[in-house]
Amino acid sequence: xKKKKNLPGTPEEILSYVTPHRMAAWKKKAEEVLRTYLFVMxxxxxxxxxCSHCHHFIRLDVSHHREETTCPHCGxxxxxxxxxRGYSRLHDRILTYTYSSAADGALVAVSLxxxxxxxxxxxxxxxxxxxxxxxxxxxxxxxxxxxxxxPAHGRWPTAGRSRDHVxxxxxxxxxxxxxxxxxxxxxxxxxxxxxxxxxxxxxxxxFCAIPAKKRNEILRWDGAIRLLDRTACxxxxxxxxxxxxxxxxxxxxYAAYNAAWGKVINWKGKTLRSVxxxxxxxxxxxxxxxxxxxxxxxxxxxxxxxxxxxxxxxLLPEMAATGYSLRLYQEVPDVAPxxxxxxxxxxxxxxxxxxxxxxxxxx
Length: 363
Hints:
Elements: H1 11-15, H2 20-32, E1 37-40, E2 48-51, E3 57-59, E4 68-70, E5 77-82, E6 91-101, E7 107-117, E8 131-141, E9 145-150, E10 165-167, E11 187-189, H3 191-198, H4 212-219, H5 225-233, H6 235-242, H7 246-255, H8 259-262, H9 272-276, H10 282-290, H11 297-308, H12 316-322, H13 326-331, H14 337-357, H15 359-362
Parallel strand pairs: 1-5, 6-11
Antiparallel strand pairs: 1-2, 2-3, 4-5, 6-7, 7-8, 8-9, 9-10
Helix pairs in contact: 12-14
């Protein structure tokens, strides 16, 4: 990896951002996000269970093996496990990401791998201690990009080994797949630490307008590593698009993860015109701020091609409303785009009238 001016270049420099006090707190949080189980260890006392989340013995109203039940003590929802039914393959694995802001302005993402073998011969579940190991540490700095310290052992499970390799931050879940025991069932993100870390930094621009549910679904794919790296590398382009309103913020969010969306943007642009590859009119800017509709890459490519060819009459709101795409422009190059948009508007209006006046619609 090429050394950058303000980024740490050695594993020791990257790992210096992780203090022992913080590591102890992060390990405790990683244990808490493991799946909850309510272990019933006696047929005679089958309404007494031990909760793996709060570590308390509780009384069950209904006792059924593998039934989801809410712990009355901590409120966590988990499966009941009856020991005489067998649970020798009960094994949990998870990859967690925790975030923090450093004093020098850097954003730090720490990845921890946690696992628990709940069955040990002759050992009760409350005597089992989950294993939590440090997987990798990533440091991001605006305008510079990111650097990750991780073990140099290819695609094999590497948690706990020495982090002697520095590389561009990337997804680490593949290192824990296909282990022959159980799949890595999810990646957990500490949302509160993420919100605190990106507060008052340009990183916040790509998150403020995205619905929380959709945002978390996508971020859990890789722990937000790719999005943070793209934001750190191309801070000007990210800030320009984010300030255009909710529509561009949403487009920016998907562009970081989808190559087809990302190619539409000139990430290395130094002006708004060069970033979007065209000049936005006042009407188009106002529409982006007010409406906040999600743009598809095909519509934005068509708009860029029209501006490149000197066609200024066709506006982005009309293209988004009718679905005018680059493919349509290339198939009928001799027909003026304004005429095609007029036809598409008329056709859509007729279809709406037909649907509202049809016998099926009246029913």
